[in-house]
Design a protein that fits this description.
By secondary structure, the protein is mostly helical. It is 68% helix and 0% strand. Helix 2 (20-45) packs antiparallel against helix 3, helix 4 (75-95) runs parallel beside helix 6 and helix 4 runs antiparallel to helix 8 (145-165).
């Protein structure tokens, strides 16, 4: 029991605070990506009911612009994590249409397992899977289209913006790897 308590006390040193330049780049990239996705939803897809902006993209923006060196923010994880999780969430919603509580639990846990298995772990993917189950009739009616629009398309758009914004200063490099 004492070892467990010692582990809980930490003991490591907190990382240094983020500099102003990196804060401004994180602000710029996240603002551009979320605003662009929302604008596209408003102008391109609002008439046909395809949502483009989902809540899990907010968490992806934190990683893609605020933690660019994290393995969880790399392109394979950003794009693959959303796609794998969306497919998983839709599948669980279809398998258990009348048991949201079962579909929700299985969607998130199976998405985590599949992201780990495929090397695409991206924490916002858990929310992407959950949204597929609990996002309402508009999301559920998309079926597997949900994996393509908004998940894959939105993640790819965020990645494109991350590639530009995160590489503006010479001192930054994104991505660290692709696959």
């Amino acid at each position: 029991m004492t070892n467990i308590l010692k582990k809980m006390c930490g003991g490591g040193q907190a990382p240094p605070r983020t500099g102003w330049r990196d804060i401004l780049l994180a602000w710029l990239g996240s603002c551009l990506s979320i605003t662009l996705i929302a604008l596209l939803e408003l102008t391109v897809t609002s008439r046909n009911g395809f949502p483009l902006l989902i809540g899990s993209f907010g968490a992806s923006a934190v990683l893609a612009f605020g933690a660019i060196q994290s393995p969880l923010a790399q392109p394979r994880n950003l794009v693959g994590g959303h796609f794998v999780s969306a497919l998983t969430g839709v599948t669980m919603g279809l398998l258990f249409p009348d048991s949201t509580w079962v579909a929700a639990g299985l969607a998130v846990s199976t998405a985590i397992a599949l992201m780990l298995l495929t090397g695409t772990l991206h924490p916002p993917g858990g929310a992407t899977a959950l949204i597929a189950v609990t996002g309402g009739d508009g999301i559920r009616q998309l079926g597997y289209w949900y994996a393509l629009v908004p998940c894959l398309s939105g993640a790819c758009l965020m990645l494109l913006i991350a590639l530009v914004v995160n590489n503006l200063p010479r001192s930054r490099r994104y991505p660290l790897y692709w696959w």
